[in-house]
Amino acid sequence: MSRIELHSAQARVFRAITAIDSLIKPVLLTTAPIKFEEYVTPERYKKAVKEFWIKEWLLENPDMSLRDVLNLPEAIDWVNSKEDLPRHVVLNSTRALGKSFLQAIIIVHMLDMLVRARNPLYQRNKNIALASPTHDQTSDIYSPLFHELNVPSYCKSGKMARKANSHELLNNVMLFMGSFESIERWRGKGLFYVCLDEASSTNTLKDDYDAVIAPAISTRWPNIGRSLITSTPLGYNSFYDMYTLEERNSSWLSYTFDYTHSPFISKKEIKLAKASMDPVTFASEYLASFEESGNTIFYPFDRSIHIRNLDWFEDYEDIHCAIDMNVGVMAFIIFAIRGNQIHVLKDYKNAYNTDEACKIIQSEFPNKKVIVYPDPTCRARKTSSPIGMTDMTILKSYGFSVRAKTVSPKIIDSVNAVNRLLLNGNHEVNLFVHPRCKELITCLERLIWKDTDAGDAIIDKTQGYDHATDCLRYAVDYLFPIVRTDSKRRQGGVATQF
């Protein structure tokens, strides 16, 4: 395998997933019963961590020298912030980068390490698992690659059945090959290495990883077990959740490589792809962009633009609150109006009813003027209200100023009103969100249309991403509505105050 050459993007991922090898190999190959924690001292581990991340900075900044890095405060702070070597890597890339070939190379590398392992303390749970959307896809893609890479020579039988779910190798090593649906069968098995290919094809990726894969790695191979998750993106789904784990855990590392990093894609192919694909599909397939398909409702929302560390309320500022009335999942957002901008500072979810929501607001903002923008249907008697009361009367009973239209706005108009604040024709941004508003951020990114007909738009509510954004729509439509020139009335009813 040493004779196989990887192109630069492949080599970088290989380097990351094998970064801990220099510490693991001596432990696995020795015949002495030495634990990883006994061999790898904190000082040795810390040195390896620093060396890896310095090199990673240099790969990200090829014009810089090692001396530049060691004298650049920004680089020093970044390197010092890293506490671990990466053991879990997420590769988000263009099509035709050679992801499957790279996965096969790494699997063979891991198999070779386990087959040669002699440490008596590490002779159990020597398992490697590989999955893609379907079992046929896994076997059809990887079986030829494994034969090309001479994996049958590792097998006890000396051969490798193409459609088999598992393969028994020398030295009690097992290779499991299946589909995403078969991941449940890995529960309880110790996994040294896990490979998930085309991971954006499943919506249960994060749940499956947390419930099955993570325990199978951490309980049997703590500080040693690894995983590689690869895919071309398909919007903000579970693969995106895994991709962003590096923001919270330095043992995770994510890469994005677009078509310019692939030696297998010609300029002619790119020209044809641009001519035959819509911009969003091209961005996903060749630019490795998580940008949603055309049915994303709040498409101008961009984390890098709209998420800011906003200041909390000044003493003189009123508290503005938008509420979506639903029993058990009542959501509301708290925001400030600053000039022509809305600054969303906090979001809440799962207050059981209107009365409970009011108590939360009142307890957090005592002796402050609170202006509430509810669902216009709050005038009706609802199941979220006690018998004989409406949501409107409950809000008023707490001393809140209530501002609502007489009827609900048209969905398409209220959505356009929000999108206009996110980004208008002059490229001005007038809506910002604090990073603590995780529910609203998720909803803005993931809410999609069920029916994109502009005359009868229907929001897809099946995933529960509509509650926080409904709050935002009600407030924005009241404060910054789309005004029609052929009518003196605001679309969606007359604006009223109480």
Q: Helices and strands in order, then pairings?
A:
Layout (H helix, E strand, L loop, with lengths): L7 H10 L3 H9 L6 H4 L2 H19 L5 H5 L2 H8 L7 E6 L5 H17 L11 E6 L2 H14 L17 E3 L5 E6 L13 E4 L8 H14 L7 E6 L6 H6 L8 E6 L9 H10 L2 H9 L15 H4 L12 E6 L5 E9 L2 E11 L2 H11 L5 E5 L16 H7 L3 E5 L5 H12 L8 E3 L4 H9 L2 E3 L6 E2 L7 H13 L15 E3 L1
Parallel strand pairs: 1-6, 1-7, 2-4, 2-5, 5-6, 8-11, 10-13, 11-12
Antiparallel strand pairs: 3-4, 8-9, 9-10, 12-16, 14-15
> What is the beta-strand fraction?
15-25%
Number of strands: 16
Number of domains: 2
Low-confidence stretches: 485-494
Distance, first to last CA: 75 Å
Cα gyration radius (Å): 27 Å
Largest sheet: spatial strand order:
3-4-2-5-6-1-7
Mean pLDDT, all residues: 88
Shape: elongated
